[in-house]
User: Fold Anti-anti-sigma factor from Methylomonas methanica.
Amino acid sequence: MGIEAKVDAGVLSIRISGRFDFGVHNEFREATKLADSGVKLIEVDLNGTDYLDSSALGMLLVLRDKMAGDKSAIRIKNSRTEVKKILEIANFDKLFTLS
Assistant:
């Protein structure tokens, strides 16, 4: 459970396991600080995420602002069906690349 983050060749990979909610806010914020070091792409892997709420959506929007609103700079990948449905209802498929 929690958040793992690493930078490799200009790509920041953030893997979120368990609940993606306000409880991981500080961990997520620490992970996004890694984007300050010349990162060109951020991949958020939600394969292990079984729940997300509005605070998680807000954290993703803050991450988008950090990358100057560039849709192609952030890829949200491996979302489970129910998580992807929430992202689509919130129109995040228009703000981020979902794969």
Observations:
- The longest helix spans residues 54-66.
- Residues 66 and 74 are 10 Å apart (CA to CA).
- The helical segments are 25-32, 54-66, 81-89, 92-95.
